[in-house]
Amino acid sequence: MLRHVRLVPAAQSLQAMKKGMVICMSYVAPAVKDKFETLSTELKNTILERDVQLNTIHDLINVLDDIVKEGERKERP
Fold first, then answer.
1. CA–CA distance, 72 with 61 (Å, rounded to integer)
2. Which among 20, 22, 46, 58 would be 20 to 30 A from 7, CA to CA?
3. What is the pTM of this model?
């Protein structure tokens, strides 16, 4: 099981809690981990920063599709 947690200093975390903010955490299920690990480090980090739950290969495909679509939108004039 792979989990990604953004760690922040305690004071910053307390400020976030006071503002009602949530610290994000992604999850990669064991069934998807082998496929996930074949991706580049940059792509894995991009996925993990999205606070996603990757339980199936379809979840992984969907988030990859979202990343591609966002990239295509940024490239359009």
1. 16
2. 58
3. 0.68
Residues 6+ apart with CB under 8 A from 28: 1, 2, 3, 36, 54
Instruction: Count structural domains, the chain.
Output: 1
- State which residues form the domain around 49: 2-75
Torsion of CA 64, 66, 67, 73, to 10 degrees: 150
Question: Which residues pair with residue 54 across a beta bridge?
Answer: 28
> Per-residue b/e over 52-73, b at no fewer than 16 CB within 10 Å?
bebeeeebbeebeeeeeeeeee
- What residues of the chain score a pLDDT lower than 50? 5-11
What angle is formed at CA 39 by the lines to CA 34 and CA 44, rounded to 5 degrees? 100
